[in-house]
Amino acid sequence: MSACAPTTPRERFRADFSASIAVFLIALPLSLGIALATGAPLQAGLVAAAVGGIVAGRLGGAPLQVTGPAAGLTVVTADLIQQYGWRVTCAITVLAGLTQLALSALRVARTALVVSPAIVHGMLAGIGITIAIAQLHVVLGGSPQSSVPDNLAELPAQLARLDPAAVGVGALTIAVLLLWPRLRGGTGERIRRAMPAALAAVVLATAVTALAGLRLPRVDLPSWSNHALPGMPEGPVLGLIAAVLTVTLVASVESLLSAVAVDKLATARRRRGGAPVPRADLDRELRGQGAANVVSGALGGLPVTGVAVRSTANVAAGAVSRKSTIMHGCWVLLATGLLVNMLEMIPLAALAALVMVVGLQMAGIHHLRNVTRHRETVVYAATTVGVILLGVLEGVGIGIACAVVLALHRLTHTRITVDEPGDGSHRVRAEGPLTFLAVPRLSRVLARVPEGTVVTVELTGSFLDHAAYETLHDWRTAHTDRGGRVEIVDGGGEPAAEPAAELAFRRPRLPWHNYRHVGLPALPGPAATAPAATTAAGADPAGAAGSVPPAVPDTVDELLSGLRAFQSRTAPLVRDELARLAREGQRPGQLFLTCADSRLVTSMITASGPGSLFTVRNVGNLVPVPGTEEGDTSVAAAIEYAVTVLRVRSITVCGHSGCGAMQALRASGTGAGGAGPLDRWLRHGHASLERLEAAGGDAPRLDDRPAADGVEALCLTNVLQQVEHLTRHECVARAVREGTLTLRGMYFHVGEAQAYVLDAAGAGVRATGDPDAGPAVFTSVRPDVLTG
């Protein structure tokens, strides 16, 4: 996709037109192959592709999703055709579409996403393996049986009477499918764009068959006058209801998961400079899928669903609206009338090989890696085996049952231990959720604690139900009555606030609690000896930059403890996002320039994550004026890189209360000429001190109150001055003039945990040093009000 997104109506139409051709070339052979695999009339696949593209494309809620006959429904549809016949299967498709319309009216689309991914991927893997084994018989020159066990039992006999011509055509198709994406170089890239792998494989196999004069079964499209339309459902009522629900379940879940995946692809493309696309409306998408199934079934087509392969190709080809999917449906419709003679030249062995490869791709190894990493292999395997041996609905039911059992297993296996640190006290640790299922084990462990001892109960789970609460409460009361002492803490050593009869240990656990709280026992390692704090005269030791509290745990142990906590708790949650950032590179929208003070946690106060902020930290959040850096151009380099390369949209200068640099600057004044590195660096703040002295009574304010003292006034003034220094950097001034960059001032009061912002317009005025602008006002940011 080009970095320049289409903007004019002509460019957008051209992008959609090109993408529709690419998707059509993929959809045509796949639709015929899926119809062949189900045992339906081959025209039914073309009808479903056309209806899915036009109807679902027009009414659906995922503009770039392509709908049509999908491999995920192949096994279900084949079973229905074998059991009820083709005309009743069409009626079942109509009823499934009506059910989808009813579900969309109830707005329950997102509930389909609560199904465990292990179940969904296991279902697709089972369907894919079933398809592959069945189509292998066609590639060998025979006919598939009704089930996987029957196909496997028949395979030795089929191998004994294989058709060499069919095998050769199938092998050629598979080879092209596997080798086509490996074409390299500029020429290979152009070839792959002009002809998708599926179309290339079928075209080459058809050409070889025709040129070699091979006598093989070929596509047979019956006359439209003989096209079968739906008939009245006949059969057991419960069986028909189960059939409708099965089609509804598989089609809906696959469509909605595909819509979510396409949404992510479109968002990623937008970050790279592609055209914006509205987010998917899942309830509307379910409504569009339902309407498409009603129309497809009524016209004698296969059931349809959102198809990930075609949708991915649509996004990759540059589609920008739903017109692409609608046009692709129109091309399929034209092909059914104009290309009948060409389509009837395709050997069935080529289509069977195509569908066999698609089926094997549905059981991709990457899905197995994902479920293994999340310890859900049992659920995946049970669902896959169930679908292969029993059927889709039965396999999904087995998968759900396994998922429930696995969840109960995890709930009942909360790890509860007790140990003695060696000072006569006891420590009871409970790792995991404490529910009624864990109460027997909890009671046994607590019963082993001797009477009259000091006990610390450490809870690291995120949930505590009433039964566990009562057990802990009653035991603590009894233990205290017998002369003991009990302290309940969270997993990081944070004591619970405890009224006389309450256990209030449900406060959120912060990631640094594991070593930052005063009540935590000393970490192993040599005792840390705090060096004497050295601060400028008049500076507050507790707030001075570089000051050290009287006693802290060993720094190395703190760091290792934090790293262990990150790897065990946070890394699994952010691994996918960081992997995406590693692939795509950083695209932060903001440069955040702030102080190096350890109490200022930028990601916390801005609620930002990886890739959001390009952060520059230094003592005093200073921005040296160009030409005064005295050899240290690191800040200027970071500013230039952020503005010219990363193209950030805003730069924020953030000061904070109790800044040690401002205290030292105020104490030393502008006449200090120390030769140390800190003194030389603080010279870049002299302009802030001079500005404050010149302001007199016009010092900056916080909301409607003046600065609390001279240090706070200097901290606020320094923010204004450093914003002005930003405008002296040529790249910043140019971007501000062009309207692509906003400057902002910010102040964070550490003791109040309160952020104050000088809005963008105000920051711009202050940067000019307008003497008539009046005192600057930093406005507090409230939970329900976003300032600036």
Which helices and strands appear, and what pairs or packs with what?
Blueprint: H1 9-38, H2 42-59, E1 67-68, H3 74-84, H4 86-105, H5 117-139, H6 148-160, H7 164-179, H8 185-194, H9 197-212, H10 237-271, H11 282-298, E2 305-306, H12 308-316, H13 323-338, H14 340-343, H15 348-362, H16 365-373, H17 377-389, H18 392-412, E3 415-419, E4 426-431, H19 439-447, E5 454-459, H20 466-481, E6 485-490, H21 513-516, H22 555-584, E7 590-595, H23 602-605, E8 613-618, H24 634-645, E9 650-656, H25 660-668, H26 677-682, H27 686-695, E10 701-702, E11 705-706, H28 710-727, H29 730-738, E12 742-749, E13 754-758, H30 760-767, E14 777-780
Parallel strand pairs: 4-5, 5-6, 7-8, 7-9, 9-12, 10-14
Antiparallel strand pairs: 1-2, 3-4, 10-11, 12-13, 13-14
Helix pairs in contact: 1-2, 1-3, 1-9, 1-12, 1-13, 1-15, 2-11, 2-13, 3-4, 4-10, 4-11, 5-6, 5-15, 5-17, 5-18, 7-9, 7-15, 10-11, 10-12, 17-18, 19-20, 27-28, 28-30
Return the structural class: alpha/beta
Alpha carbon gyration radius: 34 Å
In which order are the strands of the major sheet placed?
8-7-9-12-13-14-10-11
Biggest sheet layout = 8 strands, mixed
- The poorly predicted ranges are 492-509, 514-553, 763-769, 784-788
Family: Belongs to the beta-class carbonic anhydrase family.
GO molecular function, one term: carbonate dehydratase activity
Function: Catalyzes the reversible hydration of carbon dioxide to form bicarbonate.
GO cellular component, one term: membrane
